[in-house]
């Protein structure tokens, strides 16, 4: 879990930050991706991931915890019926932040935060790819080993 921040919270007080992040999370779940500043995207990611984890549980207490953050019932319904079940087999990493460059008016660094489309476990896919690569490398080494032994025998004679 991320360490709580100290000092100014996105330019305002803690209550305003909580409401701002709730609104950003609502828009993220409603539209799938949003464009915002990098600072807001980095603050939104842990909250969005926690809400998706609650949606994966799917029970009434989890729904009430999400309703404390997001007031729009249709967005909460979408979160619990579409987004949560999509990530049932995945343990975290439900969002992606992509930096897109500075904003024109004030040169603020901007980013796009989006909910991933596929629910495939990233770790399982990465592990499968790594095992495939290791197996192919082992086959190549096994093919070269007899040739090296034969070359070593010839040079020894």
From TrEMBL:
Segment Disordered: which positions?
Answer: 134-157
From the UniProt record, give one GO term of the biological process aspect.
translation
- What is one GO cellular-component annotation here? cytosolic large ribosomal subunit
Coiled coil ranges: none
Q: Which UniProt keywords apply?
A: Ribonucleoprotein, Ribosomal protein
Q: Which GO terms describe its molecular function?
A: structural constituent of ribosome
The family assignment reads:
Belongs to the bacterial ribosomal protein bL17 family.
Q: What name goes with this protein? A: Unannotated protein
Q: Which organism is it from?
A: freshwater metagenome
């Amino acid at each position: 879990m991320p360490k709580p921040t100290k000092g100014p919270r996105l330019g305002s007080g803690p209550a305003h930050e909580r409401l701002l992040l709730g609104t950003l999370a609502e828009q993220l779940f409603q539209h799938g991706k949003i464009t915002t500043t990098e600072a807001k995207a980095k603050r939104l990611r842990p909250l969005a991931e926690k809400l998706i984890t609650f949606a994966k549980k799917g029970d009434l207490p989890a729904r009430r915890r999400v309703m404390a953050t997001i007031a729009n019932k249709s967005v909460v319904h979408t979160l619990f019926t579409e987004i949560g079940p999509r990530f049932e087999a995945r343990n975290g990493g439900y969002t992606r932040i992509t930096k897109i460059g500075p904003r024109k008016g004030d040169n603020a660094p901007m980013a796009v935060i989006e909910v991933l489309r596929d629910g495939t476990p990233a770790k399982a896919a990465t592990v499968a790819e790594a095992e495939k690569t290791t197996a192919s490398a082992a086959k190549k080494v096994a093919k070269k080993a007899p040739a090296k032994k034969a070359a070593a025998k010839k040079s020894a004679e």
